[in-house]
Amino acid sequence: MFSPQGPSLRELVVQALSSVERGYDLLAPKFEHTPFRTPDSVLDATADALRPLGPFGKGLDVCCGTGAGMRILNPLCQGRITGVDFSTGMLAQARRAHPDAEWVQADVRALPFAGAFDLAVSFGALGHFLPAERPSLFAGVYRALRPDGLFAFPIVAPPPITSGWYWALLGFDLVMQVRNAVWRPPFVMYYGTCPLHAVRNDLTAAGFTVTTVPLTALGRREDGSPRCRLVLARRT
C-alpha cells in the first residue's frame, strides 16, 4: 500500500484491529512510507510561522512518533529537544533517526514533566484522543512548559460538505465507531472530533492564551479561508 516500501493491506488490517499502541508498534518500521507521516510541507510551514517567535530554549514533541517533528525543533531550539510517545516501536525508529535527541516513553495524558520546556509541538495526534481526554492532555502540556512557554500545532480546516473529502472522512469516522463498538481493544483515530472552536475552548480551560495564524503556504479553500492554521497556545 502507498509505496513499495509501505505496509501491505494485510498489515494495515492487522494494525487497525489492534490497540492504538500495538498498532503503531507494528506500523513503525514502515511508517515513514505512509501518508500518516506529517508531510514536510506542513512541518516547513509550521517552522516558518514559529521562527519569528524564537529562538526557543528546550523543545518537546508531543506524540512524536518516528520523530518527524525534530525537523523543526532542532533549528528552532537552542537547548535539549525531547520526543515523547507511548509506542515502543515508534520511539525505536525515532532514536535511530535522531540519536542526539532525548526520547521518553509515556502516556501523554499524564506527561512526566514540570516546567521543563519553552516550546512544545505536536503533529497529527489530536485524532487519537476522544474529546473527553483532551483536557488531561492539554493540562499536561501546560505543566510541562515554563512560564511564557508556547504549545503549537497545525489544525486543518474541515473540507466543505460538497467535497468528496468531507464524505470520505465522515465515512472513515463512522467505520471506526462501528469497529470500536464491536471489537476490543479500541483503536481511537477520528478526523472529526477536534474542530478548532472545541480545541480552543479546551486550551483556554487549561490556562492557555490562544491565538492562531494562517499557514498560507498550504493553500486556501474556495471561500478564501486558509486550509490550515497554526494554533499558538501560550502559558501565561
Automatic annotation (TrEMBL):
Pfam families per record: Methyltransf_25
SUPFAM superfamilies on file: S-adenosyl-L-methionine-dependent methyltransferases (SSF53335)
GO BP annotations, alphabetical order: methylation
CDD domains: AdoMet_MTases
UniProt KW keywords: Methyltransferase, Transferase
Domain of life where this protein originates: Bacteria
UniProt domain Methyltransferase: residue ranges: 60-149
GO molecular function, one term: methyltransferase activity
Keyword Lipoprotein: no
PANTHER family: TRANS-ACONITATE 2-METHYLTRANSFERASE (PTHR43861:SF1), TRANS-ACONITATE 2-METHYLTRANSFERASE-RELATED (PTHR43861)
Protein known as: Methyltransferase domain-containing protein
Species in which this protein is naturally found: Microbispora cellulosiformans
